[in-house]
Specification:
The protein has 181 residues and is of the alpha+beta class. Helix content is 23%, strand content 37%. The C terminus is likely disordered.
Length: 181
């Protein structure tokens, strides 16, 4: 009688462990969906079709500040060519960033964006961004990264300054979508 009771207990405990393990794997995609929907954490990986025509709201301007962080721990110099730009909502803008690889070998990097205030990430539309793909930087070379974007005209009036930060991370080898999932 006690053996059957222990078997049921072990089965239930294993089911709980399996359920917790599955929930742990589901948290990352659930978190990504939650952040995309709410704009929390300043995540802005939104791609926009380049054919979209928007009306420019020339009655106001928004200041976009650019900040870069280098987490490669290597000999690189990563910075925007301009500290900020002023744009009219709906106006397409292009800015450039430079990465100077002082190291004697090529580097593979990925830039991760963040927008502050977080709510503003819902209105930042990137049509072209170096953050969409992993980048290879040749040894002893300077590479220019491009960003094309516009701010949606529905950006709340109280948001007058937006900070777009890019953190550059090293990659040991190319990462594919299959590896992430």
């Amino acid at each position: 009688m006690q053996t059957v009771s222990h078997a049921k207990l072990v089965t239930r405990l294993l089911a709980i462990v399996f359920g917790m393990f599955a929930f742990g794997f589901a948290l990352v995609p659930l978190y990504d969906v939650f952040c995309d929907l709410t704009g929390i954490n300043g995540r802005s990986v939104q791609r926009v079709d380049t054919q979209i025509q928007t009306l420019v709201d020339e009655s106001r301007q928004v200041k976009i500040e650019f900040v870069t962080l280098d987490k490669t721990g290597m000999q690189t110099d990563f910075k925007p060519k301009v500290a900020y730009v002023e744009v009219h909502p709906g106006e397409m803008k292009e800015v450039a960033f430079t990465v100077n690889n002082l190291k004697g070998s090529a580097q593979l990097v990925q830039a991760i964006p963040s927008v502050s205030p977080g709510q503003a990430s819902l209105y930042l539309n990137k049509t072209e961004c170096f953050c969409f793909n992993q980048q290879s930087i040749a040894a002893q070379a300077t590479t220019e990264f491009k960003l094309k974007f516009f701010i949606d005209k529905d950006l709340p009036e109280e948001i007058k300054v937006l900070t777009l930060a890019y953190t550059l991370y090293p990659l040991e080898q190319p990462v594919t979508t299959a590896q992430v999932l």
